[in-house]
Amino acid sequence: MCSNCSMTSHREQTLAFHAMHAPGAPLVLPNAWDALSARIVAASGARAIATTSAGVAWSLGHRDGNELTRERALDAVRSIASSVSVPLTADIERGYGETPRDVAVTISQVVDAGVSGVNIEDSLGPIEEHTERIAAARTAAEDAGVPLFINARIDTHRLGDIGSDVWMEETVARAAAYARAGASGIFVLGALRADTITALVNATTLPLNVAFGPGTLSISELATAGASRISAGSSIAEAAYSVAQQWASAMFETPDAALSSPPALGWAALNGLVHD
């Protein structure tokens, strides 16, 4: 069992995390990628923390896209889980393995780290294959005694023509299959229009997670459309690394220019968020 929680408190925290998913009053998740970014998000008032697999991979020197090993990914999850007191949901990509058994091993270790939820993506593979992975994840969580929130990411954005009849039919079919296999929610990338989001909410039985970032509706508009969960994905990590690139470039390209303002979070504020 995780080092920073008892079985009872872990179950209670996980059940509370489930209850945070409400259409019209969604759970808002600015995604973190390390212990300090998680503490920054928690200090902003977040009710829970989500990781971004892309941000975690980049911070460890890997590309996103199922290239990170289970060991390195779980080390990051443990570090983040031990740094915050609110529920944590971890993006575990496809489950760090090719078989349902691999996914089950990952889930067992994630639960042991104290996590309350996971994202598992289908990469638009065969429905049957991902259904087996979701089912293996649910069984592993039940064996561990934790009602893990399994958020099934449906990657039908790769089909294009988002919102069309063909796209909707495939997305809803996958949502139904994953629900039967034990998923707790679905995450549909590319659902940017309010009418598309509302149609998905009406056509599926699970809480709907949508993305927030450049080019999306506002948090309020996404909530009105019926989303139960709103996450930023890799957008915050992208912004953070963009600032690093801008500063580094400016120091070489405009050496005569002075900074117009100090960073919003200075040394003292950041150092104050790091504690044992």
In words, what does this structure look like?
α5 runs parallel beside α6 (127-144), α6 runs parallel beside α7 and α8 packs parallel to α9 (219-225). The chain has 276 residues and is of the alpha/beta class. Helix content is 48%, strand content 12%. It has one domain: Phosphoenolpyruvate-binding domains (TIM Barrel, Alpha-Beta Barrel). It has a 9-stranded parallel sheet. The chain is globular. The longest helix is centred in the last third of the chain and has 19 residues, at 235-253. The chain has helices at 7-19, 35-43, 53-59, 70-81, 100-112, 127-144, 165-181, 194-203, 219-225, 235-253, 267-273, and strands at residues 27-29, 31-32, 49-51, 88-91, 117-121, 149-154, 185-188, 208-211, 229-231.
Quaternary state, please? single chain
Q: Tell me the total number of β-strands.
A: 9
The low-confidence parts are: none
Determine the fraction of residues in helical runs and give it as a percent range.
Answer: 40-55%
Return the structural class: alpha/beta
CATH architecture: Alpha-Beta Barrel
Overall pLDDT score: 94
Strand/helix succession: HEEHEHHEHEHEHEHEHEHH
Major beta sheet, strand line-up: 1-9-8-7-6-5-4-3-2
Tell me the name of the CATH homologous superfamily. Phosphoenolpyruvate-binding domains
CATH class: Alpha Beta
Q: How far do the termini sit from each other?
A: 20 Å
Radius of gyration: 19 Å
